[in-house]
Design a protein that fits this description.
single chain, mainly alpha, 2 domains, 10 helices
Protein backbone atom coordinates (compact mmCIF):
# COMPACT_ATOMS: atom_id res chain seq x y z
CA UNK A 1 0.00 0.00 0.00
CA UNK A 2 1.43 3.39 -0.93
CA UNK A 3 2.25 5.92 1.79
CA UNK A 4 -0.48 8.30 0.58
CA UNK A 5 -3.07 5.49 0.72
CA UNK A 6 -2.03 4.58 4.27
CA UNK A 7 -2.31 8.23 5.30
CA UNK A 8 -5.83 8.44 3.85
CA UNK A 9 -6.84 5.39 5.87
CA UNK A 10 -5.30 6.80 9.02
CA UNK A 11 -2.63 4.12 9.10
CA UNK A 12 0.41 6.34 9.04
CA UNK A 13 1.19 6.19 12.78
CA UNK A 14 4.29 4.58 14.23
CA UNK A 15 2.34 1.53 15.46
CA UNK A 16 0.75 0.74 12.12
CA UNK A 17 4.04 1.28 10.29
CA UNK A 18 5.73 -1.12 12.68
CA UNK A 19 2.97 -3.67 12.06
CA UNK A 20 3.39 -3.25 8.30
CA UNK A 21 7.15 -3.75 8.50
CA UNK A 22 6.84 -6.70 10.88
CA UNK A 23 4.43 -8.49 8.54
CA UNK A 24 6.32 -7.74 5.31
CA UNK A 25 9.89 -7.98 6.56
CA UNK A 26 10.43 -9.60 9.96
CA UNK A 27 7.64 -12.17 10.41
CA UNK A 28 8.49 -15.68 9.34
CA UNK A 29 12.16 -15.02 8.55
CA UNK A 30 12.99 -18.02 10.74
CA UNK A 31 16.03 -16.45 12.42
CA UNK A 32 16.93 -17.34 16.01
CA UNK A 33 18.52 -15.05 18.57
CA UNK A 34 22.21 -15.49 19.22
CA UNK A 35 22.88 -17.09 22.60
CA UNK A 36 22.95 -14.47 25.34
CA UNK A 37 20.90 -11.86 23.45
CA UNK A 38 17.99 -10.51 25.49
CA UNK A 39 14.69 -11.07 23.64
CA UNK A 40 13.13 -7.85 24.95
CA UNK A 41 16.15 -5.75 23.93
CA UNK A 42 16.05 -7.40 20.50
CA UNK A 43 12.34 -6.61 20.12
CA UNK A 44 13.00 -2.96 21.01
CA UNK A 45 15.86 -2.84 18.49
CA UNK A 46 13.51 -4.24 15.82
CA UNK A 47 10.98 -1.50 16.67
CA UNK A 48 13.66 1.15 16.16
CA UNK A 49 14.72 -0.53 12.92
CA UNK A 50 11.09 -0.60 11.76
CA UNK A 51 10.85 3.14 12.43
CA UNK A 52 14.02 3.69 10.39
CA UNK A 53 12.68 1.62 7.48
CA UNK A 54 9.20 3.17 7.42
CA UNK A 55 10.15 5.23 4.36
CA UNK A 56 10.25 2.06 2.21
CA UNK A 57 7.06 1.07 0.41
CA UNK A 58 5.66 -2.45 0.48
CA UNK A 59 7.36 -3.61 -2.72
CA UNK A 60 10.71 -2.29 -1.46
CA UNK A 61 10.23 -4.05 1.90
CA UNK A 62 9.55 -7.33 0.10
CA UNK A 63 12.73 -6.85 -1.95
CA UNK A 64 14.65 -6.15 1.27
CA UNK A 65 13.25 -9.34 2.81
CA UNK A 66 14.51 -11.41 -0.16
CA UNK A 67 17.96 -9.83 0.25
CA UNK A 68 18.16 -10.33 4.01
CA UNK A 69 16.73 -13.84 4.32
CA UNK A 70 19.90 -15.37 2.86
CA UNK A 71 22.20 -13.45 5.22
CA UNK A 72 21.57 -15.27 8.47
CA UNK A 73 24.60 -15.67 10.69
CA UNK A 74 26.12 -18.78 12.26
CA UNK A 75 27.04 -22.14 10.74
CA UNK A 76 23.41 -22.89 9.85
CA UNK A 77 22.80 -19.29 8.66
CA UNK A 78 19.77 -19.09 10.96
CA UNK A 79 20.89 -16.46 13.51
CA UNK A 80 19.53 -12.92 13.20
CA UNK A 81 21.99 -10.86 11.15
CA UNK A 82 23.19 -7.58 12.59
CA UNK A 83 20.54 -4.90 12.17
CA UNK A 84 23.08 -2.81 10.25
CA UNK A 85 22.67 -5.45 7.52
CA UNK A 86 19.02 -4.43 7.14
CA UNK A 87 19.91 -0.74 7.02
CA UNK A 88 22.73 -1.23 4.54
CA UNK A 89 20.58 -3.27 2.17
CA UNK A 90 17.72 -0.80 2.52
CA UNK A 91 20.13 1.91 1.36
CA UNK A 92 20.83 -0.15 -1.75
CA UNK A 93 17.13 -0.45 -2.50
CA UNK A 94 16.42 3.23 -1.87
CA UNK A 95 18.48 5.65 0.22
CA UNK A 96 16.58 7.18 3.10
CA UNK A 97 15.55 10.74 2.23
CA UNK A 98 18.06 13.20 3.65
CA UNK A 99 15.29 15.38 5.09
CA UNK A 100 14.44 12.51 7.46
CA UNK A 101 17.89 12.66 9.06
CA UNK A 102 18.14 16.00 10.89
CA UNK A 103 21.51 15.17 12.46
CA UNK A 104 22.97 14.53 9.02
CA UNK A 105 21.48 17.79 7.70
CA UNK A 106 23.00 19.74 10.60
CA UNK A 107 26.37 18.11 10.08
CA UNK A 108 26.44 18.92 6.34
CA UNK A 109 25.18 22.46 6.98
CA UNK A 110 28.14 22.98 9.36
CA UNK A 111 31.78 23.52 8.39
CA UNK A 112 31.99 19.80 7.62
CA UNK A 113 29.76 20.08 4.56
CA UNK A 114 32.07 22.34 2.54
CA UNK A 115 35.03 20.10 3.51
CA UNK A 116 33.25 17.03 2.11
CA UNK A 117 32.18 18.98 -0.98
CA UNK A 118 35.76 20.08 -1.65
CA UNK A 119 37.04 16.52 -1.10
CA UNK A 120 34.38 15.10 -3.45
CA UNK A 121 33.03 12.81 -0.73
CA UNK A 122 29.53 14.18 -0.06
CA UNK A 123 27.59 11.06 -1.05
CA UNK A 124 30.02 8.64 0.53
CA UNK A 125 30.13 10.62 3.77
CA UNK A 126 26.33 10.65 3.88
CA UNK A 127 26.28 6.90 3.26
CA UNK A 128 28.70 6.38 6.15
CA UNK A 129 26.65 8.66 8.43
CA UNK A 130 23.42 6.84 7.60
CA UNK A 131 24.87 3.36 8.10
CA UNK A 132 26.65 4.15 11.38
CA UNK A 133 24.22 6.82 12.64
CA UNK A 134 27.16 9.11 13.37
CA UNK A 135 29.67 11.20 11.43
CA UNK A 136 33.08 9.78 10.53
CA UNK A 137 35.44 10.71 13.36
CA UNK A 138 37.61 7.66 13.97
CA UNK A 139 41.04 7.05 12.43
CA UNK A 140 40.85 5.49 9.03
CA UNK A 141 37.19 6.30 8.42
CA UNK A 142 37.90 9.27 6.16
CA UNK A 143 40.36 7.13 4.17
CA UNK A 144 37.66 4.51 3.62
CA UNK A 145 35.19 7.21 2.56
CA UNK A 146 37.74 8.73 0.14
CA UNK A 147 38.42 5.29 -1.34
CA UNK A 148 34.68 4.73 -1.89
CA UNK A 149 34.41 8.18 -3.48
CA UNK A 150 37.24 7.39 -5.92
CA UNK A 151 35.58 4.09 -6.81
CA UNK A 152 32.24 5.82 -7.44
CA UNK A 153 33.91 8.60 -9.45
CA UNK A 154 35.51 5.96 -11.67
CA UNK A 155 32.19 4.13 -12.02
CA UNK A 156 30.48 7.35 -13.12
CA UNK A 157 33.28 8.10 -15.58
CA UNK A 158 32.94 4.66 -17.18
CA UNK A 159 29.17 5.07 -17.37
CA UNK A 160 29.46 8.54 -18.94
CA UNK A 161 32.01 7.29 -21.46
CA UNK A 162 29.72 4.46 -22.55
CA UNK A 163 26.81 6.88 -22.93
CA UNK A 164 28.89 9.41 -24.90
CA UNK A 165 30.08 6.67 -27.26
CA UNK A 166 26.52 5.46 -27.80
CA UNK A 167 27.22 2.06 -26.32
CA UNK A 168 24.57 -0.05 -24.61
CA UNK A 169 24.27 0.76 -20.91
CA UNK A 170 23.05 -1.67 -18.27
CA UNK A 171 19.70 -0.38 -16.88
CA UNK A 172 20.86 -1.03 -13.30
CA UNK A 173 23.99 1.02 -13.93
CA UNK A 174 21.91 3.87 -15.39
CA UNK A 175 19.58 3.76 -12.37
CA UNK A 176 22.59 3.81 -10.02
CA UNK A 177 24.12 6.83 -11.79
CA UNK A 178 20.82 8.70 -11.68
CA UNK A 179 20.34 7.96 -7.97
CA UNK A 180 23.93 8.94 -7.19
CA UNK A 181 23.65 12.26 -9.00
CA UNK A 182 20.25 13.07 -7.49
CA UNK A 183 21.63 12.38 -4.02
CA UNK A 184 24.68 14.51 -4.74
CA UNK A 185 22.38 17.37 -5.77
CA UNK A 186 20.35 17.06 -2.55
CA UNK A 187 23.49 17.09 -0.43
CA UNK A 188 24.98 20.05 -2.30
CA UNK A 189 21.77 21.97 -1.58
CA UNK A 190 22.15 21.29 2.15
CA UNK A 191 25.78 22.47 2.10
CA UNK A 192 24.86 25.60 0.17
CA UNK A 193 22.01 26.37 2.58
CA UNK A 194 24.45 26.10 5.46
CA UNK A 195 26.92 28.41 3.73
CA UNK A 196 24.22 30.98 2.99
CA UNK A 197 23.06 30.87 6.62
CA UNK A 198 26.50 31.75 8.01
Amino acid sequence: MATAERAEKGEDGAGSNRDRIRSLLFDGLGFRLKRGVDAEAHAQALDRLADDLAYLDDVELQALRRMVEVHGEGAARNIWPGLATFRGMAQIIRPRPVEELPALRRWFASVEGPKALKAGTLVETADFFERRRRPPTRPGEMNLIAENARRNERRLAVFDERVSLGRAVDPDERAWAERYRARLGDLRAIVETGEVGK
